[in-house]
Amino acid sequence: GAVVSQHPSRVICKSGTSVKIECRSLDFQATTMFWYRQFPKKSLMLMATSNEGSKATYEQGVEKDKFLINHASLTLSTLTVTSAHPEDSSFYICSARNRRLDRGEQYFGPGTRLTVT
Amino acid sequence: SQQGEEDPQALSIQEGENATMNCSYKTSINNLQWYRQNSGRGLVHLILIRSNEREKHSGRLRVTLDTSKKSSSLLITASRAADTASYFCATDAADSWGKLQFGAGTQVVVTP
C-alpha cells in the first residue's frame, strides 16, 4: 500500500502560538511531499513542495516564514504554522509521491483541521 | 491558480444511475488524475491517465482525455450511495515538476 498519516487530526490553538503538523509516509519512501490548504467546500491550494534534505519550495503568496516546512527524512515532513492567527484556521493536507513506484500519483494524508481562537 | 475547472459543481443522482463530470484545463500536461474526497477527509487517488492515452477504465470508473480540447471526463457507472463524495481532477503540467493543480471539484450526492 501507500499510506500517509498526519498528526494531529485536529488542533485548536490560541492566537500567537505555533502549531506543528506531521506528515509521515508509513510504508514507502517519499520522493517529495506536498502541503496543501483547503477552505470549506473549496479545492486544494498547493502551499509548498518539500524534498528531503533541501529547502521547501513555496508557491507564490505563501509566506515561508509563517509556514515553516522541514523534511527531515524520506518518511517525514513537518509544517509549522508560526504565530497563528484566526485566518490561518483551515484544513491542511499533505501528500507524498512514492520514490520507488513513482507513476505520478500522490498519496494523501487524512488532513489536519486547525482552528485558531 | 486553479488549472482545472470542473463541471458541474454539484450533481445529485439516484443509486444505479451513472454520474458524469467534466474537467477542463489550460496548459500542456504530463498526465491528469482524478481524486475523491469524503467530507472532512483526505483525498483518495482514483485513476491517472497519461497525455498519450485517450481512455482508461478502473472498475466502475471510466476516464477519457481529449488533449486537443484540453478536457477530461469521469464517468461513474451504476452509482451507489457510498459514491457520495467530492471528486477533483488534477493536472500534472508539463513544466510543473510533479506539482498538481486541482480543479474546483464536483460534489456528488447519490441517494438510495
Layout of secondary structure:
The complex is a heterodimer of chains A (117) and B (112).
Chain A: E1 4-7, E2 10-13, E3 19-25, E4 30-38, E5 44-51, E6 57-58, E7 67-73, E8 76-81, E9 90-98, E10 107-108, E11 112-116
Parallel strand pairs in A: 2-11
Antiparallel strand pairs in A: 1-3, 3-8, 4-5, 4-9, 5-6, 7-8, 9-10, 9-11
Chain B: E1 5-7, E2 10-14, E3 19-24, E4 29-37, E5 43-50, E6 55-58, E7 61-66, E8 71-76, E9 85-93, E10 100-102, E11 106-111
Parallel strand pairs in B: 2-11
Antiparallel strand pairs in B: 1-3, 3-8, 4-5, 4-9, 6-7, 7-8, 9-10, 9-11
> Span between N and C termini of chain A?
37 Å
Largest interface (C-beta under 8 Å): A-B, 25 and 25 residues
Report the sheet-strand fraction of chain A: over 45%
Order of helices and strands of chain B: EEEEEEEEEEE
Helix content of chain A: under 10%
Which ranges of chain B are low-confidence, i.e. pLDDT below 50, for 5 or more consecutive residues? none
Given the helix and strand composition of chain B, which structural class is it?
Answer: mainly beta
Average pLDDT metric of chain A: 91
